Amino acid sequence: MDTGWDDTIAAVASPLGCGARGILRVTGPDAWQAVIRVAEFPIDSEAPPLSEPFVRPALLKVKNIRQPWPATILYWPGQRSYTGQVCAEIHTIGSPVLLQACLAEMMVRQARPGEFTLRAFLAGRIDLSQAEAVAAVVAAGNDGELAAALRQLAGGIASPIRRLREELLDLLVELEAGLDFADEDLTFISRSDVEQRLRHARDQLQNLLGGLHARSDAREGHRVVLLGRPNVGKSSLFNALLEGERAIVADLPGTTRDCLAAETEWQGTPILLIDTAGVEDFSMSAEPRPLPAAFKRDGSPDDGSSEANPLPPDIAARRFSENAAQSADLLLFCTDCRSVVSQAERAFVTGVRSRCLLVATKCDLTEGWAFPPGIQPDVLTSAATGEGIQFLRNQIVSFLSQHASSRPMILSVASATRRCLDLALSALDEALALATDSLADEYLSASLRAALESLGEIVGAVYTEDILDRVFSRFCIGK
User: Fold this and answer.
1) Is 172 exposed, middle or buried (0-12, 13-18, 19+ CB in 10 A)?
2) 209 closest CA partner among 372, 423, 17, 21
3) Which contiguous run of DSSP H or E holds residue 361?
4) Dist. CA 399–CA 145, nearest whole Å
5) I need a labelling partner for 18 at 20 to 30 A (CA). Which of 115, 213, 328, 395 fits?
6) 356 φ/ψ angles, rounded to the nearest 5 degrees
7) Is the Cβ–Cβ distance between 321 and 346 less than 8 Å?
8) Does the model's pTM come out above 0.90?
9) DSSP states along 44-71
10) Within 10 A of 7 (CB to CB), how many other CB atoms are there?
C-alpha cells in the first residue's frame, strides 16, 4: 500500500445498498473544496469557521439530478479529526445512486480499503493494535465481540507495550553508555541488573502473548473441544450438538483420526466446536497454552510432522488431541455411561476441572452409570434420543459467559500485533542468552534494538510498508 497521503480522498462510508441514511466521507487538504462542489448552505446562514468543528444543514446539488435534496455536513479541522487532516462527512439519504453521483461530482480520488484508518495511524492518532481493533469493531458479530474490540480501541494492549518499551529504552541507554566509555573504569549497570530487567521484560511480553488469544478472524468463536476415549460417542455428540451429520460415526474405535471443526452460534455466543480423535493414554498434558499457529483456520493443530517425516497415524492423532485440549476455552470430557472411569481419566479431569464439563454419553442404553464418588457427570446425554443435548448447549453458553471476563484482550485477528510480539520475545531471549557475557554487550545492544523495533511497530513509533499492507488491506472501503 502506498503510504503517500498528501492528496484528498473520498468514499461511501455507510453499508452497501439502500438505507435511511447514507454517509460520504472525505479527508485531505482539499476536503472542504470537495464538499462545497456538491453542497449549498442556506442563504441566511453565516459562513462556517473552518478552524473549528461544526455541523450544518445543507442541500446537495449535482449534474443530471434535477432536484436538490437535504443533507447534514459534519466538519473537523486537521487538528481535531480522526485522520489528522481536514475531514468532512455528508449525511444524507441512503440511495446508492445519489451517493455515487455526489462522489463523482467531488472530483477527488476514491479511497482504497482502510485508507482513512491508515492516515489516522500515520498521523499518530492511533497505534497498530488500535487500527486492528477498528477492523474488529466493523466485524463484531455480537455484544461481547464489540465490547472487546472497543476496549482494545481504547488502548488495551498499547499502554503496557509503551511502558515496556520505555523500560527497554532506559536499559539500552545504560548499556550503550558503558560501550561509549569502555576505556574508562566506569560501571553504569551490573550484569545481574541487566539480567533481572531483561527477565522482567520477557515475563511481561509472555503475559501479553498469553492473554492475546490467537484468532484468524474476528467472528471466530470460543473453542469447545470434545475429548475422550475411542468410541465413547464424541462424534455422535458432535453431530447432535450441530444438528447435522458433520462427523463420520461408526461403532469401530478410532473412526475419527483427525480433528473436525465446525462454527456455530448458540444464544448469540459464537463457538468453534472441535471433535478430536479418541485418546487411550491420559498422561497427556492439557495445560492451557497459546494456540498453535496451524490451528487458527480449520481447527487442525500442528502435529509437528512434515511431508518428509510424517508421524505415525496414532501418534499424530494423539498430538492433535493434546494440542486441541491445550488450546480449548472449554473441554467436554466425554465418557460412556456404561464404562467405568479409569484412574488416569479421573486424574486428567481433576487437573482440568476449572475449564471442563464432564459429559456422560449414551444414557439411553443404561438406567445407571458407573461413575465413582466425587466425579459425577455434569450432563447426561443421548445423541440417539436427543436427551440432554439442549441442556448441554445451555451449560456451554453459561460457562463461556461466566469466564468471558477472564480474557483481558480482544479475540480478534491481531496477526500483525502478534507477529511483532513474537519477534520482540525472540529478541529478548537472545539478549538474555548474552546477558552474562560482558564481552558481548554490542550483540546484546543489537538484540535490544531489535526488540524495540518490533514493539515500536505496534505503538506506531516505526512502521514498514509490509506492516501497512497486511493490516489495512483487510479493511473495507470508507473505513
Assistant:
1) middle
2) 423
3) strand 356-361
4) 17
5) 115
6) -140, 140
7) no
8) no
9) TSPPPPTTS-EEEEEEE--TT--S-EEE
10) 11
Beta strands 260-266 and 269-275, pairing class: antiparallel
In terms of C-beta distances under 8 Å and separation of at least 24 residues, what long-range contacts does 63-70 make, across chains too?
63/101, 63/105, 64/101, 65/98, 65/101, 68/40, 69/93, 69/98
Angle value at C-alpha 270, between 268 and 272, nearest 5 degrees: 150
CATH 1.20.120.430 fits 139-213+412-459, yes or no: yes
Q: Are strands 9-12 and 109-110 parallel, antiparallel or unpaired?
A: parallel
pLDDT in tens, 209-244: 766 644 433 345 688 999 888 888 888 999 999 886
Fold annotation for 222-406: Rossmann fold (3.40.50)
CB burial of 391-401 (b: ≥16 within 10 Å; e: otherwise) equals: ebbebbbebbe
Ordered DSSP codes for 220-233: --EEEEEEESTTSS
**pLDDT tens sequence across 287-330:** 554 444 334 434 444 444 444 445 455 565 566 677 777 778 88
**What letter would DSSP give residue 385?**
T
Give me the residue spans of the domains in the chain.
9-126, 139-213+412-459, 222-406
CB-CB contact of 222 with 270 (8 Å) = yes
23: cell is 454517509
- The candidate with the shortest Cα–Cα distance to 378, out of 407, 349, 420, 416, is 349
Reported in sequence order, the residue ranges of 389-445 that DSSP labels E, i.e. its strands, are: none
Could you say which architecture CATH assigns to the domain 9-126? 2-Layer Sandwich (3.30)
Compute the average pLDDT of residues 70-81: 89
Outline where 94-190 has alpha helix (H).
Answer: 96-106, 115-122, 128-139, 143-153, 158-180
Judge residue 368's burial from the number of C-beta atoms within 10 Å of its C-beta, 0-12 exposed, 13-18 middle, 19 or more buried.
Answer: exposed
Identical fold, 9-126 and 139-213+412-459? no
Residue type at 77?
Answer: P
Task: Considering only residues 46 and 376, tell me which one the structure prediction assigns the higher pLDDT.
Answer: 376
